[in-house]
């Protein structure tokens, strides 16, 4: 049966088609509404607006479900690895072992960045925020790779391999620059996360062997961040890409969107908040009361989500994982206890219960990053490395969709009506 919806605007009734997803989600296609009635729809922050048909990630915010290409996030975190998940997101199916080997080797082939890029890192201030450097450096990649034709499968794949290979190198060099340490070149004999750890933490003067458990922990965190359907940064990547801007420029814009504290920047904000609670000597109850105060602009960072109105399934995995990783590394971090206390207090509090505010992916991830030795202002960079394959998969899907058009929302104008210009001397 074909579903339709009826809407009446100023006495005119219009019948609109309804699109149905494979998980029975319904979307009213309003693309003819303005033409038929003169009206557009208004939806602040696009909380109720579908911008795409997508086959990449399914999430149900009410039930706390997250699946990449149909595979539950819990199973992927337990049994897969980041590059396999990246292949899955990009191609839609799990790879055979031969396909995975080729995929990995092509990424590894592209881990070096152009030597001239060193001068970029040298030119940024030492205390630059790493997300600013990351976004700039990724956009700068487009100046080195101008020839590729991303409208072809081969051309897009080449850009994808370059980005997947180079982003960890760019990220690690950003960190090295902030320390004044020499840049460490990639080691293609190591796996993706081991290589990243080596570029971050080794020095040319010392022998460094990445800890396999730390690399594994990092790999799981990257899997958990790999995609999350039409979030702010992914929508940004799609929007920029819809103008046919190249993949590097689109991803650079996504990194900028991710930086904000209401999105990926929340992981840094959570750790800073926990530090503030510990330093202030406030009880967690007092702190919770302060974030409920409508006169205060502070929020309980790492809590609440635009889509999840139940537990964020990633937060559940990360909470268990935080205990495991800290035990494994023998780290006794008081921040973990403060975080658990804040969570328990908030989950019993009417304010959070009635608004369906639960811990999100960022609530515990910072504690793990800290235990792994990742600096606080670098947490969002880790998120960006994880989210990269998701952004690329969306860019690819959007450009391949037959209905793809440049993203161009409308508005309701609330400014002055027409008036005559007044000469400067008469004002
Ligand atoms: N602490 C205190 N109150 C909160 C919080 C919070 N973390 N989150 C929402 N609220 C309150 C709001 O004040 C509002 O209350 P009101 O109805 O009395 O005015 C109500 O809950 C709804 O909040 P909105 O801002 O309308 O919710 P929205 O869906 O627009 O925002 C967001 C979601 C941005 C994630 C929000 O919950 C927030 O700011 N959380 C803290 C930042 C954070 O952790 N961001 C990471 C999100 S996950 C990610 O991007 C990877």
Keywords summarizing the entry:
Rubrerythrin, domain 2; 3 domains; 53% helix; three-stranded antiparallel beta sheet; mainly alpha; Cytochrome p450-Terp, domain 2; 427 residues; binds acetyl coenzyme *A; Citrate Synthase, domain 1
What would your notes on this structure say?
It contains 18 helices and six strands. It has 427 residues and is mainly α. The chain has three domains: 4-60, Rubrerythrin, domain 2; 71-259, Citrate Synthase, domain 1 (Orthogonal Bundle); 266-372, Cytochrome P450-Terp, domain 2 (Cytochrome p450-Terp, domain 2, Orthogonal Bundle), CATH 1.10.230.10. A three-stranded antiparallel β-sheet has the order 1-2-3. Strands 4-5-6 form a three-stranded antiparallel β-sheet. Helix 12 (266-280) packs across helix 15 (334-348). 40% of the residues are buried. The mean pLDDT is 94. Bound molecules: acetyl coenzyme *A.
**Assembly form of the protein:** single chain
Low-confidence stretches: none
- The order of strands across the largest sheet is 1-2-3
As for the CATH topology of the largest domain, it is: Citrate Synthase, domain 1
Describe the SSE topology.
Blueprint (H helix, E strand, L loop, with lengths): L3 E6 L2 E9 L5 E3 L4 H5 L19 E4 L4 E4 L2 E2 H7 L2 H10 L5 H13 L7 H7 L6 H15 L8 H27 L12 H10 L10 H14 L6 H11 L4 H13 L6 H15 L3 H9 L20 H17 L4 H15 L1 H5 L7 H10 L7 H22 L27
Antiparallel strand pairs: 1-2, 2-3, 4-5, 5-6
Helix pairs in contact: 2-9, 3-18, 4-7, 6-7, 6-11, 7-8, 7-18, 8-9, 9-14, 9-18, 10-11, 10-18, 11-18, 12-15, 12-17, 13-15, 14-17
Bound molecules: acetyl coenzyme *A.
Acetyl coenzyme *A binds next to loops.
């Amino acid at each position: 049966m074909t579903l339709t919806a009826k809407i009446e605007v100023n006495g005119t009734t219009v019948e609109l088609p309804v699109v149905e997803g494979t998980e029975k989600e319904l979307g009213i296609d309003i693309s003819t509404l303005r033409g038929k009635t003169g009206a557009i729809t208004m939806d602040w922050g696009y909380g109720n607006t579908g911008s795409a048909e997508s086959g990449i990630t399914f999430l149900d915010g009410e039930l706390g479900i997250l699946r990449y290409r149909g595979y539950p996030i819990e199973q992927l975190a337990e049994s897969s690895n980041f590059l396999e998940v990246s292949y899955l997101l990009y191609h839609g199916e799990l790879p055979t072992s031969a396909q995975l080997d080729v995929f990995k080797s092509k990424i590894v082939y592209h881990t070096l960045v152009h030597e001239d890029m060193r001068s970029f890192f040298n030119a940024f201030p030492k205390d630059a925020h790493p997300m600013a450097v990351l976004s700039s450096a990724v956009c700068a990649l487009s100046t080195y790779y101008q020839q590729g034709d991303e409208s072809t499968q081969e051309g897009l794949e080449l850009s994808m391999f370059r980005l997947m290979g180079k982003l960890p190198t760019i990220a690690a060099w950003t960190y090295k620059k902030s320390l004044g340490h020499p840049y460490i070149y990639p080691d293609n004999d190591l796996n993706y996360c081991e290589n990243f750890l080596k570029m971050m933490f080794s020095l040319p003067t010392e022998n460094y062997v990445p800890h396999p458990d730390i690399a594994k922990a990092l790999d799981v965190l990257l899997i958990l961040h790999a995609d999350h359907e039409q979030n702010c940064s992914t929508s940004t990547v799609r929007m920029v890409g819809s103008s046919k801007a190249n993949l590097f420029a689109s991803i650079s814009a996504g990194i900028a969107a991710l930086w904000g504290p209401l999105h990926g920047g929340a992981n840094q904000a959570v750790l800073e908040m926990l530090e503030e609670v510990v330093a202030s000597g406030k009880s967690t109850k007092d702190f919770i009361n302060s974030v409920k105060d409508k006169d205060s602009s502070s929020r309980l960072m790492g809590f609440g989500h635009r889509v999840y109105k139940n537990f964020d399934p990633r937060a559940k995995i990360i909470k268990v994982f935080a205990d495991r990783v800290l035990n494994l590394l023998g780290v006794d971090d008081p921040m973990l206890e403060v975080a658990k206390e804040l969570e328990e207090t908030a989950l019993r509090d009417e304010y959070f219960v009635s608004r369906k505010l639960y811990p999100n992916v960022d609530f515990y991830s910072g504690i793990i990053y800290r235990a792994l030795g990742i600096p606080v202002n670098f947490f969002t960079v880790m998120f960006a490395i994880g989210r990269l394959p998701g952004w690329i998969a969306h860019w690819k899907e959007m450009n391949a969709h037959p209905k793809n058009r440049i993203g161009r929302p409308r508005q309701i104008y609330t400014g002055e009506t027409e008036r005559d210009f007044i000469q400067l001397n008469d004002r």
